[in-house]
Amino acid sequence: xxxxxxxxxxxxxxxxxxxxxxxxxxxxxxxxxxxxxxxxxxxxxxxxxxxxxxxxxxxxxxxxxxxxxxxxxxxxxxxxxxxxxxxxxxxxxxxxxxxxxxxxxxxxxxxxxxxxxxxxxxxxxxxxxxxxxxxxxxxxxxxxxxxxxxxxxxxxxxxxxxxxxxxxxxxxxxxxxxxxxxxxxxxxxxxxxxxxxxxxxxxxxxxxxxxxxxxxxxxxxxxxxxxxxxxxxxxxxxxxxxxxxxxxxxxxxxxxxxxxxxxxxxxxxxxxxxxxxxxxxxxxxxxxxxxxxxxxxxxxxxxxxxxxxxxxxxxxxxxxxxxxxxxxxxxx
Length: 332
What we know:
Layout: E1 8-12, H1 16-31, H2 36-39, E2 40-44, H3 53-61, E3 70-75, H4 82-94, E4 99-104, H5 112-121, E5 123-126, H6 133-144, E6 149-150, H7 152-162, H8 169-180, E7 185-186, H9 188-191, H10 203-212, H11 215-226, H12 233-250, H13 258-265, H14 269-304, H15 309-323
Parallel strand pairs: 1-4, 1-5, 2-3, 3-4, 6-7
Helix pairs in contact: 3-4, 4-5, 10-11, 10-15, 11-15, 12-14, 13-14, 14-15
């Protein structure tokens, strides 16, 4: 396959917004300055229960007319079954050089033979931002390609505000460019009116804040998990139970390193090391207190209390954060 021609591209990812944006970018690159109405044909999508692979193959095998390229887009490619994948692979090997195919993740899992073939003969466009350092790199790269520039405080504010909801990044950057002009340097004050609601955050943001004893941060994070993250009360209680149960398993053992902790608990060394350190810091009495508080809250959020479940969770989170010597809360 010539390096300047992408016959088949698969756009992968779990965030529907990021996948859609990634697919748009791939199609735009393939399209160039051509007329999309003459070049692009789309199949599948959320409103379509079954993808008719025969029609897709007919489009791939038909020479382009009036233009020098035909782009066939398969939405929700996870709806394809093994038999569909086999037929598509046969078509990929013989389709005209003027045809290109874009498979967009969604609707399930794209058949493994298709993914294997594309890894060798096509291109995979991964849209997932990842976590930790990978997320930071993803965020920096997208800001580097943005139509505006953000100063350091605005960059930090935007990153924290979006949390896991990174699919909103492109829209915010586009609005900033239309408001302040291309290549404008945007400050935190100028950014603030366009942020909208805070996005969801990963669950470890809550447990990290609790471990630091930061009541304010823990309560703010709890609110974002419940509202933007769409997590239910019992789900929050369950993740807190898992967090402290890991400490309880390690309490009193002669385990000294995070590698030993990981071997005992299962999983990777980093979270196991955090559980080991926190287990030693809290000690058996405070870990037992935490487990008791969580067990009580578990019953209460399921309707066995006159208190609102949200208030039950706020009380629980504040008490857990205070176990390790919390910072003074300024919340009223």
